């Protein structure tokens, strides 16, 4: 395995699968199986999952609610997704711990870095819920920050698209996929990889990012083995 410790970022939207809202259990089961496959190979796996399939902070503003309140609602949405993923992983026979950026002691441990590191060493999958625990951030920022904190080798951004394209492939059929690209080129070409806060954190800490299609079973393993799947962003 090329990567020994990874931070896997899953978007909430990808969890919807074919549905318009909520959680598609088939997708969840596939994710759990894919994660199990690499855990069984001794890879340390931390996961951050988004909440976009349930609620996003910006939605609150659109309907006249308070932004900060909306962001907390979004963070709680990520806890719901995290709990669902935790359950699916445990069903697949994987040991897990859910650590939350907001204290919800009946269902998650509080986020404590040293504890997260220890869980990982013991082979448990650590799921980070509630993002960073602060409004005005996204789960991409949480993924970058936690990855740096736990000294992950790479951030794997699992999405519905199979990498970073020269243009939006859904709008421009001539768009081509990069296999690798530098942080600088992503900035200069104004490509959409993560939000800027998250992206800058990775760049400044020289933490590579791989964007890949997580919905294709087996892809996660290929990425971790070092196969050229998706797009690798490096210095
Ligand atoms: N959020 C937040 N702080 C964080 C992480 C998330 O305020 O550290 C809120 C924010 O409102 C965001 C929502 O939680 O819109 C859901 O997360 P995100 O949009 O990143 O989910 P994804 O797009 O990956 O599904």
The first-level CATH class is given as Alpha Beta
* Number of helical stretches of at least 4 residues: 9
Number of DSSP strands?
A: 9
The hetero compounds bound to this protein are: uridine-5'-diphosphate
What is the assigned CATH homologous superfamily? Acetylglutamate kinase-like
- CATH architecture, please? 3-Layer(aba) Sandwich
Portion of residues in beta strands equals: 15-25%
What is the string of helix and strand elements?
EHHEHHEEHEHEEHHEHE
From the N-terminal CA to the C-terminal CA, the straight-line distance is 21 Å
Q: Mean pLDDT across all residues, rounded?
A: 96
- Rg, rounded, reads 17 Å
CATH topology label: Carbamate kinase
Give the total of domains: 1
Low-confidence stretches: none
Identify the notable features of this structure and list them briefly.
single chain, 9 helices, Carbamate kinase, alpha/beta, binds uridine-5'-diphosphate, 235 residues, nine-stranded mixed beta sheet, 9 strands
Layout: helices, strands, pairs:
Blueprint lengths: L4 E6 L1 H4 L9 H15 L4 E6 L7 H6 L4 H25 L4 E5 L8 E2 L2 H9 L3 E5 L9 H11 L4 E6 L20 E3 H6 L7 H9 L4 E5 L5 H7 L5 E4 L1
Parallel strand pairs: 1-2, 1-6, 2-5, 3-4, 3-5, 6-8, 7-9
Antiparallel strand pairs: 8-9
């Amino acid at each position: 395995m090329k990567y020994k410790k990874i931070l896997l970022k899953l978007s909430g939207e990808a969890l919807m699968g074919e549905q318009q809202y909520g959680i598609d259990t088939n997708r969840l089961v596939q994710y759990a199986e894919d994660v199990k496959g690499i855990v069984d190979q001794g890879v340390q796996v931390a996961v951050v999952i988004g909440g976009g399939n349930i609620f996003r902070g910006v939605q609150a503003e659109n309907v006249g609610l308070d932004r900060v309140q909306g962001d907390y609602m979004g963070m709680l949405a990520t806890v719901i997704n995290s709990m669902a993923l935790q359950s699916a992983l445990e069903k697949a026979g994987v040991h897990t711990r859910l650590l939350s950026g907001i204290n919800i002691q009946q269902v998650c441990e509080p986020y404590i870095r040293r504890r997260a590191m220890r869980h990982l060493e013991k082979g448990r999958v650590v799921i980070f819920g509630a993002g960073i625990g602060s409004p005005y951030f996204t789960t991409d920022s949480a993924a970058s920050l936690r990855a740096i904190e736990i000294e992950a080798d790479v951030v794997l951004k699992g999405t519905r698209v199979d990498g970073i394209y020269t243009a939006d492939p859904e709008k421009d059929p001539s768009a081509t996929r990069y296999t690798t690209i530098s942080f600088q080129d992503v900035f200069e070409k104004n490509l959409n990889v993560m939000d800027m806060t998250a992206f800058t954190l990775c760049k400044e800490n020289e933490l590579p990012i791989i964007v890949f299609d997580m919905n294709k079973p087996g892809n996660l393993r290929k990425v971790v083995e070092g196969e050229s799947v998706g797009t690798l962003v490096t210095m």
